[in-house]
Amino acid sequence: MICYDEAHHIFKxxxxxxxYVFGLTDESYPGQIYYGKxxxxxxxxxxxxxxxxxxxxxxxxxxxxxxxxxYPMEYPSVGxxxxxxxxxxxxxxxxxxxxxxRYRSHRIYAGKRPLEGLPATWDAASAxxxxxxxxxxxxxxxxxxxxxxTAQTASCSCSTxxxxxxxxxxxxxxxxxxxxxxxxxxxxxxxxxxxGGERSVYLTKVLSACLHVEQENLEVLTLPxxxxxxxxxxRQKLGYGSVVTESIRGISSHQDHPFMAxxxxxxxxxxxxxxxxxFVYSGNFLAKAMRDQFDQTRMVMGIHPxxxxxxxxxxxSFQAPEAxxxxxxxxxxxxxxxxxxxxRNHLIRGYWKDRRRPVLINNWEATYFNFDTExxxxxxxxxxxxxxxxxxxxDGWFGYRSNDDSSLGDWQVNEKKLPGGFTYLAQEVxxxxxxxxxxxxxxxxxxxxxxxxxxxxxxxxxxxxxLGQARAQYVLDLSRPEVAEYVYGMIRDVLSSANIEYVKWDxxxxxxxxxxxxxxxxxxxxxxxxxxxxxxxxxDRLTKDFPQLLLENCCSGGGRFDPGMLYYSPQIWCxxxxxxxxxxxxxxxxxxxxxxxxxxxxxxxxPNHGTGRVTPFETRGVVALSGTFGYELDITxxxxxxxxxxxxxxxxxxxxSHLIRNGEYYRIASWRENHLYDCFMVVSExxxxxxxTYVQVLSQINYKSRxxxxxxxxxxxxxxxxxxxxxxxxxxxxxxxxxxxxxxxxGDSTERDGGDIAAADCGSAAAKxxxxxxxxxxxxxxxxxxxxxxxxxxxxxxxx
Length: 800
Ligand code: GLA
Hints:
By secondary structure, the protein is of the alpha+beta class. It contains 17 helices and 41 strands. Strand 2 and strand 3 (18-24) form a beta hairpin. Helix 11 runs parallel beside helix 13 and helix 13 (646-662) packs across helix 15 (726-738). The longest helix has 19 residues, at 527-545. The chain is globular. The two termini are 37 Å apart. Alpha-D-galactopyranose binds next to loops.
């Protein structure tokens, strides 16, 4: 719910457990007052410290410039005294850089409007409420009314506040939009800038959100990484000065992630304050936290101002992307569950949103470029026999590509490798009862390609400068509409040529040589954002024209794993690192924000191609189970004892898919922190069922069985705790197959639990058949000791 207290000029946005409050000074400067646990009162204007004058004692009046450097401006601007990081910067036609924004009006309405051309959270019922009626618009002239104005959320699950501010000198209007959700503790913010003046202006910076936190002893949590080492959780103390995470690579990137959280010192999974921001955007971004001279902390997030300059003609507007804000008073776990819930219910869309995704087998690590129809069908046959449901043909099926060096852009099937093209392959794969999916990298072009030979000017490039390659390829200048149109035509032709039900949309390099041969000089700074808008436009068309297509985004692994891409594809390939142990920390960092249902995870062969590590097949299965689940190996060359485990793994995926897709996530222990073991749970929303994954990374001699305190259960309910045994599931499936009763992996409820976990190991508890939730959570269970490194346990917990 959102309300405006007209007597005190205070806006308050409430979610189920949080409040976000800001108010107006007498001069109409909006200032941030509070973000935290829910409070009822709105009369909090005293916290703006309007009467404090941090000035030399001799100066008695409050001076504007000095005050701005201290005031918690809701949306700080450049050039007028606030020397901390601002959110908006402009350059006028006179070359001057200053902007003073004052409140002019606001409106509050039920629901949420889409952001044109951009991904954003949505509300199912909003369409019916998308036109706010004019009578809910309030202007400065109405500030003296004595009422508290609120939004009627009707059937919507959120309400929105739009605050319009204006700079008198340029006529620029800035509309700050806030949406408060009713069903999840999240607030989203976005910004639209409108040129209401008579002259053009250059926007040199338009960030999307700003948060002030008045709490000392803060740490900053970010998710830096690298290729094959994405989203590693990092915490650092916030001293005076700033901590920055950013990308100017044209993608949200492997190296940094568009996420930043301020957390109180000693914050854990279950305790401490967390103020988090995640950016719904896939290109350049800046997130910055700074502690100022008065121990005030400001955190901002938005499109990176480097290489950004957008010319706004009179009457034009610019829409900045959305940032998501989450506050938790119970540590990181509660923050995670808020993000998961928001993204599951208000970001991911389409046919596959709530559907179990098919178990796929991808040929990349199986064959790399070296495959033909016969090889693919051999893989498909063996896969189908074991319950795998989709074959994905990865890189190398088009042009004359047999290595990284050629053919990107020539999206015609190489009939030497695949005679009869995808039409024949799809028919044969469908005959096996499987679906067919393909890999595409539509944003790229190889120098050695017909497309590049015909249109060398279509690559991003700067006048007179030699283009730089990365992975032997150039980036197509999608900011040019004719290039984007051509690319879409190619995609549509391939997908219309056969029964292709899945696309892995890859993007394998950063943007460099960012220049455009058609835009004027003063619009070259728009290219990076225009490029991103074009990618979104292509994926939007794709998902509309092929509504049942399962789209999986990818970017050399997880280089564009962000909420922006998640709006178009319900799953994203998490990392090219398929090593089950390295994956633990990559997936932990990813799961910190993103629901398990969207995290691409596959079982691959050992020794692992990236690390050379050998882990049990069962462990690889259990680790991939906490994602979309699939295989990335040559099943025809797999040892029988591994092949035989596949039907059981597929059965487990089907059995637990509802929990993995919809369950609430609880992190119990992190291998990244303790260097010995990893443990987490997913719990059904009604707390009747849970799955606990335990991975013993390193074994120890002469040590006790480990006590694990479960999380998220109903303390008063009673539960059974059983170990899920892959061996027994496999044996059961083989028995069924032998008895001709059911196909391997068929049905969604093939379940075979191993022994009662506590009964096996808990001594005096052995007689018990069930355990109180309180006992499981506060006292814990004992995890059976197991010999060997890289061993796993899966516990199935059910309410009795
Ligand atoms: C990227 C992807 C891989 C694979 C290769 C193919 O690296 O992340 O999964 O598709 O491209 O070139």
